[in-house]
């Protein structure tokens, strides 16, 4: 098994300079993907290596760095010297980034550029098998949590299960101080290295239990991408929860709720059991009773237990068919013993709101259109608005405007005199891309919502133009407006609910 890389520059100044050299070479997510002609780095496939080597054959510093730290191939020593600029190759080798091999150099880690930072991640794989202390790369779950993170300016942030430190590094740009916690000492060495590489001095990392993290006080933002896989035994630190069923996920959510400052947000990604004969939303809602938090779950499509097991086992036992079959049978028997119908997955966002009844909401996750954090934050504000405007008279006195991200989609079909509208749908094109069917009456209502008239004035105008009494259409209009506000199609015009998410 490849030995664990020791990651550390001799000084913070050298780490900072290495980060500057990467930036000067254009080592960004956008530039690297453009060079490789791929959509994103998760789209890389080993069978494409000959093509990717041709695309990086230009001899530039970026070509060399991508070959070393993305493709994992060897380069000639002279090319490595040129890419390292004025820094000695010995510095890069001593830091654990490079190693000398016969005829050249090879990268010991992967350097993954993502959302403006560069993160060293583990490359210790052999035929699909991983060491127990393997450090999770920037995978789909890392990206989902990063995209969903609410990026408001905050004082204190806690990152539970920090791994490579990617969430902590991103949060450091809008936090006064960040504490990253992990039980994997190897992960912490990667995380500390990455903070130095990106010149982030407001992060501290500590080894500790997710359920009893070090430090005290409350936090304005808590993020968690813990080992959430619901496996029958704990084999891999980065993956397996080590607790029965979804108990670790539940307990991390409870710890998050307990550590939040008033008004603070906690965002946790993970898996939960969907049990036969039990409503999944009701089961999760019970977890949060008495926590003092409002909760919004954005859930992906449930996964069949056998498919779930096979996907995870394939990552570690993909080169050993007998072991794969044995573990698959063990996992399926485990899920059967728990009465598992399916595996749920998604991001749970909590906001501490004490002193009043709290709400729980679980939605099937809509299509994501870019980063979703601001849409999630706005969703909490809109729910608070609807709770305050609980009576119709209050709502009728509010001015609304249509979200600038709303689009109307119409399906046309042939008619005797040309084309006619068969159906109309509205959709948000940014953040959480909610979509729904609407009729001409709803479109007429939306067209009047430009922030200048109250809802009552709009309804009066619609009633007069249709020859109906306002009292006959008030109830339906108010109900429709509430339905349009919750997903963000309509926005109330008031200081704490921005007209346009940034």
Explain this structure.
Helix content is 37%, strand content 25%. The chain folds into 3 domains: 97 residues, no CATH class; 237 residues, 3-Layer(aba) Sandwich (Rossmann fold); 107 residues, Arc Repressor Mutant, subunit A, CATH 1.10.10. With 502 residues, it is an alpha/beta fold. An 8-stranded mixed sheet has the order 7-6-5-8-9-11-10-12, with helices on both faces. A 3-stranded antiparallel sheet has the order 19-14-20. Strands 15-16-18 form a 3-stranded antiparallel sheet. A hairpin with a 2-residue loop joins β3 and β4.
Largest sheet: 8 strands, mixed
* Percent of residues in beta strands: 25-35%
CATH architecture of the largest domain: 3-Layer(aba) Sandwich
At the first level of CATH, the class of the largest domain is: Alpha Beta
Number of E strands: 20
Distance between the termini: 46 Å
* CATH level-4 homologous superfamily of the largest domain: Vaccinia Virus protein VP39
Tally of contiguous helical segments: 18
Mean pLDDT over all positions: 90
**Structural class estimated from helices and strands:** alpha/beta
**Unreliable parts:** 495-502
Give short descriptive properties of this protein.
20 strands; globular; Rossmann fold; alpha/beta; three-stranded antiparallel sheet; eight-stranded mixed sheet; 18 helices; about 500 residues; Arc Repressor Mutant, subunit A; 3 domains
Topology:
Blueprint: H1 12-24, H2 29-36, H3 49-55, H4 61-71, H5 77-83, H6 89-94, E1 98-101, E2 104-107, E3 110-114, E4 117-121, H7 140-148, E5 154-160, H8 166-171, E6 175-182, H9 185-197, E7 203-207, E8 219-224, H10 247-259, E9 260-275, H11 280-287, E10 293-299, H12 305-317, H13 321-337, E11 340-352, E12 360-364, E13 367-369, H14 373-388, H15 392-396, E14 399-402, E15 406-415, E16 418-428, E17 431-433, E18 435-438, H16 440-447, E19 450-454, H17 455-466, H18 470-485, E20 490-492
Parallel strand pairs: 5-6, 5-8, 6-7, 8-9, 10-12
Antiparallel strand pairs: 1-2, 3-4, 9-11, 10-11, 13-17, 14-19, 14-20, 15-16, 16-18
């Amino acid at each position: 098994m490849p030995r664990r890389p020791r990651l550390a520059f001799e000084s913070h100044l050298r780490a900072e300079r290495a980060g500057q050299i990467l930036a000067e070479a254009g080592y960004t997510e956008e530039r690297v993907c453009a060079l490789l002609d791929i959509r994103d780095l998760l789209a890389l496939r080993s069978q494409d290596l000959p093509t990717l080597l041709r695309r990086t054959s230009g001899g530039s510093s970026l070509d060399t760095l991508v070959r070393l730290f993305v493709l994992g191939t060897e380069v000639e020593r002279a090319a490595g010297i040129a890419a390292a600029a004025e820094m000695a190759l010995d510095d890069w080798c001593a830091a654990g980034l490079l190693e000398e091999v016969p005829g050249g150099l090879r990268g010991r880690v992967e350097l993954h550029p993502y959302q403006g930072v560069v993160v060293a991640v583990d490359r210790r794989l052999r035929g699909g098998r991983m060491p127990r202390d393997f450090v999770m790369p920037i995978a789909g779950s890392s990206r989902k949590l990063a995209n969903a993170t609410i990026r408001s300016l905050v004082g204190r942030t806690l990152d539970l299960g920090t791994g490579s430190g990617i969430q902590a590094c991103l949060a450091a740009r809008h936090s006064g101080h960040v504490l990253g916690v992990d039980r994997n000492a190897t992960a912490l060495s990667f995380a500390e290295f990455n903070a130095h590489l990106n010149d982030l001095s407001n992060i501290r990392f500590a080894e500790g239990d997710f359920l009893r993290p070090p430090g005290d006080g409350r936090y304005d933002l808590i993020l968690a991408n813990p080992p959430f896989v619901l496996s029958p035994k704990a084999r891999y630190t980065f993956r397996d929860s080590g607790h029965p069923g979804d108990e670790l996920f539940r307990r991390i959510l409870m710890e998050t709720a307990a550590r939040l400052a008033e008004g603070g947000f906690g965002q946790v990604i993970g898996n939960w059991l969907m049990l036969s004969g039990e409503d999944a939303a009701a089961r999760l809602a019970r977890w949060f009773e008495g926590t003092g938090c409002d909760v919004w779950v954005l859930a992906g499509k449930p996964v069949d237990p056998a498919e779930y097991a096979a996907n995870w086992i394939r990552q570690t036992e993909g080169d050993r068919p007998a072991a794969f079959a044995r573990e698959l049978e063990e996992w399926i028997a485990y899920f059967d013993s728990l009465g598992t119908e399916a595996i749920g997955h998604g991001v749970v966002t909590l906001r501490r709101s004490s002193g009043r009844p709290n709400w729980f909401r679980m939605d099937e996750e809509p299509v994501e259109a870019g980063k979703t954090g601001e849409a999630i934050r706005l969703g909490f504000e809109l729910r608070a608005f609807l709770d305050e405007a609980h009576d119709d008279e209050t709502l009728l006195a509010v001015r609304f405007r249509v979200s600038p991200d709303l689009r109307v989609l119409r399906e046309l079909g042939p008619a005797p005199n040309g084309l006619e509208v068969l159906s109309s749908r509205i959709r948000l094109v940014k953040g959480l891309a909610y979509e729904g069917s609407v009729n001409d009456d709803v479109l007429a209502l939306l067209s009047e919502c430009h922030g200048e008239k109250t809802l009552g004035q709009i309804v009066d105008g619609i009633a007069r133009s249709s020859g109906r009494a306002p009292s006959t259409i008030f109830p339906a209009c108010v109900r429709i407006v509430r339905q349009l506000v919750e997903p963000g199609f309509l926005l109330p015009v008031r200081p704490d609910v921005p007209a346009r998410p940034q």
